Amino acid sequence: MKFNQFAHVKVPFEQKLAELNRIAFLHAGDEDLASNHIYRLFLERAFPNFKTEAAKNHALSNLAATENTDILTYLNSSKINARVFYAVGLQLLGFEAELDFDLKDPFSAMDKLNLPYQKEINHPNDVINAWYDLLCTSTKKGQTLLDILANRGYFTQFYKLNLAEPIFFNGKAQPVFDTNKLIHEVVYVESELDTDQDGKRDLLKVIITRPAMTDNGMKVPTIFTASPYYLGTNDASAEKMMHSVDLPIKRKEVNQLSYLDIEYHKPATKLPKKRPVVISTKNAEESWEHLFTYTFNDYMLARGFAVVYSGGVGTLDSDGYRTCGDEAETLGAKDIVEWLNGKRTAFTTKEANKAIPAWWSNGKVAMTGKSYLGTLATATATTGVEGLETIISEAAISSWYDYYREGGLVIAPGGFPGEDADILAEECFSRQKSAGDYNRAKDGFNKFLSTITKEQDRTTGNYNTFWDARNYLKDVDNIKCDVVMVHGLNDWNVKLNNVFNLYNKLGDVEVTKKLILHQGQHIYINNFQSLDFTDMMNLWLSHKLYGIENNAKELLPDILVQNNTKESTWETYSSWQSKNFTKLYLDSDSLSAQKKENQTLEFSDHLPEATFKHYQANINSWKEDILAPTSPKLQNNRLILTSEPLKHEILLKGVAKIKLKIASQLDHGLISVKLVDYGDAKRLGATPTILERRGLDLGYHWQEDNLVEFKLAKETPFKMITQAHLNLQNRHNDFSTDELEANKFYDVEITTQPMFYHLPKGHKLGLVIYATDMEMTLQGNEENSYRIDTTGSYCLLPIEE
């Protein structure tokens, strides 16, 4: 157990006094009291759920000061010192005496837990200084002590004050607004779209939750999450549409297309006129029932932020069609930002006869969300829309080709074989859930959907105009807001090249960019024990949306990475791609720094029918067997080459390049590679462990979340680090098609998905070479085999030692 805090702002003593007064932990004259008296007051105020002096005394009597004295008894006879302060402090933070720390030596535990403390407490100012920092310190649940006190009702004393602005402590907004009095309403924003071509601009349903004090004139910023999933999905109909993957890849017609030949150009279209505004009102006519929400957004609701969700075009109660990532979806989200900053019209109902402004908004917006949600945040940022101050995009797509395709191949997102852009459009077309509305829209949508199916081109897998229209990287130069990117280093749904390419493209853009890489798959990380992510983002949004000068840009690391070999360990870096490359040559079964005599290595892509069917039904079995050094079923279907055991740990940072001189038995083919960590070790689990179900309170009598953390699992002999796939007819780029003659050797270069991976001393680095990927590529089980000439074959590895 180790805690990593990056949002703890170091402030001078005078500021600590002012802030403690602001949140009522210090009252006028308290700072003139003796050390024990001040400390006793602090302790009593730390139990807001105990209402009487007798109840508070009982609570204090349960805190041990020493191995045989409680703090209530101790303060009657002895002066507070650092050892007792932190022995009690650890208990307030939720740690257990004897289990987590020794009452005689709390400092050793605090060092081990990576918690801050001051070594001497002798004077009243020392007590005040230490208490301020203790309030900002991580508890055993990963939240700060002040968060825990808030969950017990500490800030309810501020509800009756009818505050006109948030209260900030240590640079972060505090929960001083009553979540039992939130205002829930719905409006319909008029977009700059007519995706269903019905002669009227698409109206987009927007679901709003805002603090009650906005009705009294308080202006608040907005956290906006664009979620096509929010109002429901069509799982059954999407499942029926799934494409078959039981197909061989086909030889493609050779062409010499340039990018200009396939570049997307926005077609000239004439929009319908805006609806006339006859009357304007501040009063919404519709509310909403509770729906699935992002728990970080919930956390911020009590802190003076409004939260807005919208499904966008084609979702329940909105107009239009789902277009799976193209400009229409981007503009739909942008238009909602424009309404929030006063530059676009919304109506109280779909009849569109009463306009309603975002009169409660201060015009500043942040976008949040994971996966498709984070993708739309990224897409909206590329419009440069005014009012969007920052995005926090998690596991976001930056180019849809990199989601559904790779290297001229049809590639499934991890875990979703047969899915494609048309499937996702159907999945999210939740207008289907309203029968009357769907009857009016289905014929047009089905025709539109057939166009997506055709243009996405599952036949060649090439990059084309369809995918170019869904490539946000082209427009990164337009981004004006600051960007926080979060991604899992084991995310094989939205693969890492999406965030790697976005991060690199942002290098030349004059905005602040922050990158957080965790060891998870496709997950949120705001409920982790070891990282103060929620506090970091509170600090960030307090600065970006309220203008608080809290050094957020300087405090938050530019690149923060969770270590893959140790629990609860987060490290800071200044770059992702290593400038140093180590060359390892391919031999019969090894990777060597020394070039050896020429050999030809061979493997087959065909499996016996029974074996093939077994792996189709048991993908996890295939994922294990393809990497296992001894695997009889796949012994002839892949090459495994390994390095010597490492003499010291190395860090693989960035993308590797695999150079192969390869020949296919047929006039078409593919190549797949994996880099593998071979060595017995306890590794972090594939998914975070739930430490306490619903163990995190997000406010006083408010929402809850699971407390989770990555824990070392049972020992395993290997782990995949990264992988890549390439159609041998796309040797130069993804949009033009090369010749491929049977049995002729060609030089190819395969770029892996990016890495941030510590390879321990004594382990071996492995390269696995094969063709069909049962998890991701088409599965034709074709009679094909491949030969590799080691003369021109080697790896370029981005290694930092």
Features:
eight-stranded antiparallel beta sheet; alpha+beta; 22 helices; single chain; 801 residues; eleven-stranded mixed beta sheet
Describe the structure.
The protein is α+β, with helices and mostly antiparallel strands. 24% of the residues lie in helices and 24% in strands. It is built from 22 helices and 31 strands. The strands form 7 sheets. An 11-stranded mixed beta sheet has the order 9-5-6-8-7-10-11-14-15-16-17, with helices on both faces. Strands 18, 19, 20, 22, 23, 28, 29 and 31 form an 8-stranded antiparallel beta sheet that branches. Strands 21-30-24-27 form a 4-stranded antiparallel beta sheet, with no helix packed on it. A hairpin with a 7-residue loop joins β16 and β17. α9 runs antiparallel to α15 and α12 packs across α13. The mean pLDDT is 97.
Content-based structural category: alpha+beta
Report the major sheet.
Answer: 11 strands, mixed
Number of H- or I-type helical stretches: 22
Q: List segments where confidence is low: pLDDT < 50 over at least 5 consecutive residues.
A: none
Number of E-type strands: 31
Q: Beta fraction of the residues?
A: 15-25%
Across the major sheet, the strand order is 9-5-6-8-7-10-11-14-15-16-17
Mean pLDDT: 97
What value does the Rg take, in angstroms?
29 Å
Helix content: 10-25%
The end-to-end span amounts to: 26 Å
- The dominant shape is globular
Q: In short, what is this structure?
A:
About 25% of the residues lie in helices and about 25% in strands.
